[in-house]
Structure formats: structure tokens, C-alpha cells
Amino acid sequence: MEQFLWQFPYLKHLEIKAHGWKNLFDGYQWQKLTNFFTTFNFKFDTEDILMDNILDSFSTPYWLEEKHWFIGYKNGCLFSIPHFAPDHIDISWQTSLRSTALNHTVIYDRLNKITIKTDVIDSNYYFTHIKELILECSISVQILTSTMDLNQIKHLSVLSIDDILKLIPLESNMPQLCELSIKNDVTSDMIERIRLYRFSQIHKLEIGIFTKYSDYITEELFRLFAFVQHLIYKSPIESIQTMICFIDGFKHLSNASFFCDDYPR
Asked: The pTM is what?
């Protein structure tokens, strides 16, 4: 890299994304190469085992005071802040996210997607710009509201349709929510527990259903999600008639995706 950059003595702005060895993570060496740069943004990742003090060479007066270039590190990836700061984070446990910035707000404010895998959340930060929330556990709305601004959520992903019950009423807890993804197949028992509700705000639905009592489940879905415009149906389609049933049943449908193991008859 050093030999390459010396060929461009008038270079002022540089952006690099690279996968390589841990010598890429040497802030002292980069200081020699970037002295005359106006901007320098990079994202380096490696499979090498890195030391805990990996950010020390990027914490010198050159980086922090002269250039005002701040660096973050997460899971083997070193990146410029805010240019290459992540937009997605899992806050279920202590994250390895570290940075040379005194205030992590510059990183967290760029996040728009959060994954939660346990109802014990290890974060003291209140997230204000989250658009997509992935719940891989059952969690109360009280815990969520203490962690993030639910008014900003547009896409919610849950394991089971039962998990929605803890978040009801959706229209007041997540007023901007319009897209719902349900990972596990919906059963008739689940439908019985939720059949009294209506989710008119959901315009995009990703769902699959359990094959037993599928006709009953399908009819109930038409009532529960009456205003769906975009359907992603994950269960294998067994016949063309099944596809027609879904297309006719969702009266506002304009876009549909289906999956089949064999070409349906």
C-alpha cells in the first residue's frame, strides 16, 4: 500500500475498503501515509486475532486533534466514523463496539436497525432513529420503550405471531409500523389467540402457515391483515389454486411472492 500511495503525491481524498492482514490496523503507519490528506475513510476487516489495544495507534494527537479522524472497531472490523459506522447492531449482550470518539452518540445515531435476542438488554443508550426492529425473543413493550423510540419503527420482525400480543395496540405503540415479518409458521392455535384483533396498518406481510387447518388460517389472515398490499408467503405453495386464493383474499394486494418445492399444479 505504501508503494502504491507514493505514486500519487497530489492525492487529497481517499476511501478504502479492504480485507487483509493485521498490518492494515497500524495507525502509526497510516499516519505517515496520510499526512497530506484532507479526508481519509476506510473499512478494514481481518480474520487475524487482534489485540485489545488495537485502537491505541489511532488515538494519538495526529488522529484525534490534528485530523479529527475518529475510528471504531467491532468484531474484527476497523472503520472510519461516521463514514463507515454500522447501521445495524445486536444489543442483546455486551457489544465489542469500541471507538476513539469520546461520545458514542456519533455511532449510535447512525443505527437504523436493531436485533434483540434476550429480554436482558445490555445498553445504557436510548436509540432514537431505529426503523427496523428484529425480535428473536419474547419481550415486553415496557423494556422496548425504555431502550428506543418505538414511534420510528417501520418494520417489525418477530419469531411468532404470539409475540405481537405483547405489543398491542400496535397503532399506538408503533404508529409508523407498516411492515411485519413472522419467522415461524402460523398455527390455528395462534390464530385463536389473536383473532379478535385487526392490523390495518400492516401493508407488507412476510408469513408462512402450518399445513394443518391451512384453509381456516388463511381465511383468518385475510381478516387480520385486511390492508396488505405486498405479501411474501414463505410456506411451499402446493397448487396454483392456493396462490389464486391468496391473491383474491387480500383485496388490496398489488405485489406477491411465493415459494414452491415443485412447480404447482
From this structure: 0.86
